[in-house]
Design goal:
about 120 residues; 1 helix; mainly beta
Length: about 120
């Protein structure tokens, strides 16, 4: 398996749209949990990583709508978007509206594990 584990790596700042991360097209596992992406959005270019089976973006201060491109990662077995919250208030930073939770689940047919604790899934 080709994987990149940057869990708790003190990454600080947004994931840039032109990051070389998106050139790692053979990547099967990506763990960016427990970092500080400073309330930036999940980049839509994540959809370029078509071989991902495991994606962990939990506890990383990501915010806004989960991009539709995440729903195109058809090989995903495990997706963790949980606990992206405002540290002081505990308010939810991520939401699933377009795509909705239903759309996400319908498209990710290989998905076995989905962690959405503290993700706003209300319509």
């Amino acid at each position: 398996m080709v994987g990149l584990d940057l869990n708790s790596s003190f990454l600080d700042g947004p994931i840039l749209h032109n990051s070389s991360l998106f050139e790692l097209v053979h990547l099967q596992s990506l763990n960016l949990s427990d970092n500080n992406f400073r309330y930036s959005k999940i980049p839509s270019r994540l959809g370029l990583l078509v071989n991902l089976k495991y994606l962990n973006l939990s506890q990383s201060r990501l915010s806004s709508q989960v991009p539709i491109e995440v729903s195109t990662l058809s090989k995903l077995i495990s997706l963790d978007l949980s606990l992206n919250i405002e540290p002081l208030s505990g308010s939810q930073l991520l939401k699933l509206k377009k795509p909705s939770l239903t759309t996400l689940v319908q498209n990710l047919t290989a998905l076995e594990v989905l962690k959405l604790r503290k993700v706003n899934t209300s319509s």
